[in-house]
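Subgroup meeting minutes
Present: P.N., E.W., G.H.
Scribe: E.W.

1. P.N. recapped why we're keeping a running log of single-chain structure predictions: easier to compare across weeks, and new members can see raw inputs and outputs side by side.
2. G.H. added today's entry (552 aa).
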Amino acid sequence: MMVATSRLISRLGAGFGLLCLTLALLVLPAAPAQAHAVLVSSSPVPESVLSSAPSEVVLTFSEPVSRIPDKVRVIAPDGSRADRGEPVFENTLVRIPVDPGAGRGTYLVSYRVVSADSHPVAGGYTYSVVVPSAPPVDDGADGRVNPVVDGAISVAKYIGYAGLLLLTGAALVLARLWPGRLPRRGAARVLWAGWGLVMLSTLAGIWLQVPYVNGGGLFAVTGTGLGDVLGSTFGAAHLARLGLLLAGLFLLRPVAAGVAGGSDRLILALLGGAALLTWPIAGHPAASPVPAVSVPVDAVHLGAMAVWLGGLVMVAAFLLRRANERELAAILPIWSRWAALSVSALLLAGIVSALIEVGTPAALVSTGYGRLLLAKAGLFVLVLGVAVYSRRLVERRTAEREPTGLRRAIWVELGVAAVVLALSSVLVQTTPARNAGADVAGRGGADYYNSTLTSSIYSLQVQVDPARRGNNSVHAYAYTLDNRPLPVVEWRVTAALPSAGVEPIEVPLLPLTDNHVTGEINLPAAGDWELRFTVRISEIDQATVLATVPIR
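Output recorded in log:
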């Protein structure tokens, strides 16, 4: 009796510890504004002093953004609104018409928009006309995300993941592996619990997206805000998931009762595959550089997770307890093959997704996203080790004779996997490493060169990052003299260091848009490098400007 009590206390303590760790991960303080798109350039340039007032402000983001009503503003030096009319959103560009007669002094540009992965992006910067002055304040701007809302979103996502694995695992086991002699009531309850948790998570996600995007607390939800969310890609994906869940309800009933036919199972599988796509469509993968790859890869990653962990729950909670030795001898080898395939798909899809979202090896340790990904990978390796041990038990045909050891191994897998799911819930709220650190408005002057050069026919914004010896990224943005994006016919950029006798080096260029080009160059020595930009905007119109970039 004492031994049984001691085991019970140990298991409860371990479960409580895992629960505390999981909840701690879910409510970790989020990075400011949780922005996933970033401001990569602007015209006027932050902290620049212009000789005359511009007719518009142009913001360029790293991915397409959409508007939030009255959240993009330009504040004049006297505190009045200098923006005129509605800002124009063109893919990654936001053009804000400005009153050129608002006067001298320092202007404040503040913005809050929604990035392509459904996260709000907020920030601001100043520029001056003729002479700087005390910067104005925008009383209507608030770039913060309510921490209660942010934490609630992570919890809702965790509930959705947990529900998905319960629903998937129960449906698969009941449809393909459940012994005919065993009652199905307990397993059916797991199936309906999973369905309910996914439904709850989806509805909560729609509700929470309103204050998440617009600001405010849990109940700062208006009809207009809800309509805007439902009309977005995020809302469409969630509405599609709700529809698929309701459609699947009629096919899950025969599965739960054990009377589903082959056509029922096929249609249910197709509905499930379509539902899996609604998660990446409303998240990071939709805004990746290659969404056609990222979206299906993320759906495979999510589906493999649900099959593996959901199946483990059913095996540990029901089959190992109720099935006899003969039934286990037939079930476990099949399940072991399913698990091996799921883990392989999970691993492969995870690697592809990480390569896209991280971008560079250095970002794994230099960004919060990368460090979370490393922690997730470490825990996955631990789970994988336990899974290999479980598979060996099955291969040795000892699991059906002594299921206690396999059951313990599976519960260890599920315990660590619960923490992995919590990390995943935080990860989808974290700025991908490929965008981290790229926000122009949020950076100081260190390790970064940013300047605007003017010729007789165009204005050129030039960025060199990190402005240190070694590899550097060069970005150039062409604008008209009144600060409108200017299509360029031909670019040519060279870099030279005359003080060290380094002759001009051609910079290989990659056009990103018709007015934006980027290139990579190795600058091997410190000093004042001369970057010469030759820009042709028509058959006869061409001009060259020179930037002197201090490299440390």
